[in-house]
Amino acid sequence: MNAYFATEREGCPVAAAGQARRDAEFQMFQRYAKPLAEVDDFELEACAIALAAGESQAWAETGILGYSVLADLPRLRELQVETRRLDVRRLSAIESTLNRLNDLATPDILADMDAYLVKVFTPRVAGAELPSPSSLKRRLRERIQRIDAKLAPNQKKIKDRKKAKDAPFGTCRGTFYGQDDGDAGLNVSGDAATIGLMERYTEQIAREHKLSRDDALKAILTGEVKATPKVVLYMFTSKTPGSSYYIPNFGWTDADGTAAVEAMLEDNPPHVIDLDAAEGAETQAYVPSAAMRALVQARDGTCLWPGCSVKAENCQLDHRVPYDEGGKTTPSNLFCLCAHHHNIKTDRRVYYVPDPVTGDIVWLHADGTFQVTEAGGFLTDYLQPENPRWRTTLEQRRQQRRDRAEFYHRCHSAVEQYEQDRDYETCMATIHDLEEKFGRRFEYPPEKEPELTPQLLAALEEYRRDMAHETSREFYLIRDYPPDHDFQDPEVPSYA
């Protein structure tokens, strides 16, 4: 009997329906499997497919990207044209796993992967099970590990690391540590919304009681401060229900955090500012409105001076065209500059011009030289759809995914190495180099454990002895008898 997969069983109506579904996906996405397939605007293309198919845009993007991997795997592409065995989920599993190879995906390595995948999708017996997406990921990870072990870190450890970092709203982890010199500390971690609320609450207490931030935190935790100040937590979200929230300085909420924030907002109705309206807003006053300020800070991210990393929330808003020279108070004329660089610009020692097409900031110096910076806020790409950086091609999107995959897996491998050798400095240097190379931030760096110095070990041993002594003392205290205790033999009850 000829070999075939269970999905190809003749006379089975379910198998026929499944094949019809794969055939339909093939008709929708096959053109992206061809080498040098061009897509000028990836998002719009995916949107058009989603609307026509009645599916989500995420599904359409997955289909385009999944089929695009076949452009690098000619033998598997030929097999797919002939059999239509692979659906979007399986192609997506292949694409997402191979992405981590990135620059290591040489023609020879791709040819090896191609031959292996053709073998995987060629049945050996009648009624063979079609490999699942999870099985494909596991098999490809194993082959990638042979090429570069740092691209195949332990998946369970990655999940545990993310779970600990992205704990649900309201979940925090605290670690106390002590030192023999009497100094001690507390590390607290949790989800973005909870830590954001804690930070704002601490700031408010510090302001009301004229305390430093550390002293305010001590007062809160020791119960010295009982007041409940009104805390303002700034968040950004889209108008789509269920969208994630962005909390400045803390990042995006996950699904659980988003649901918890929305539950919190039901009891505390928020003050909503429409940033769509703020983008074109204008005031005759010198001081911009709160909506304008929020929009500009979310757009710029940091001080726009080349190389300056002062957060936008700590910057001043500069009128690029001075207000007293007719410059309008409107977001298109307002830019974030720290106090120092704002003064340099105000002194006319330098001038800057925003590029209306790319959004880049061109700095013009008195000596005739210039520098170019770009806004780094999370809203940058969403403000001007005509911005070329907003319109991405298929190849650009694929390269972004390759970069992301390689970045995160190499960073997780660095953390795993730290968990083995406890070389914190080397681990963080590796992560920093990867962040610089890929222009990304790794959200799951390890926490540095206190160095086990002889002094710390001695302090821990002393603490252990003290605790043992306290336990023993409590034991004997419990067995202390009152002065009038009768020490005669206790009466033994009879069970006869």
Describe what you observe in this structure:
This protein has 496 residues and is mainly alpha-helical. Among the domains are: 4-152, no CATH class; 191-267, no CATH class; 279-383, DNA Binding (I), subunit A (Orthogonal Bundle), CATH 1.10.30. Helices cover 48% and strands 9% of the residues. It contains 18 helices and eleven strands. The protein has helices at 13-29, 42-53, 57-68, 74-83, 88-98, 107-120, 133-147, 155-165, 192-209, 213-221, 255-267, 275-279, 290-300, 339-346, 380-383, 394-421, 424-438, 454-478, and strands spanning 4-5, 126-128, 172-178, 184-190, 246-247, 251-252, 316-319, 334-337, 350-354, 360-365, 370-374. Strands 9-10-11 form a three-stranded antiparallel sheet. A hairpin with a 5-residue loop joins strand 3 (172-178) and strand 4 (184-190). Mean pLDDT is 81; it is low at 384-390 and 489-496.
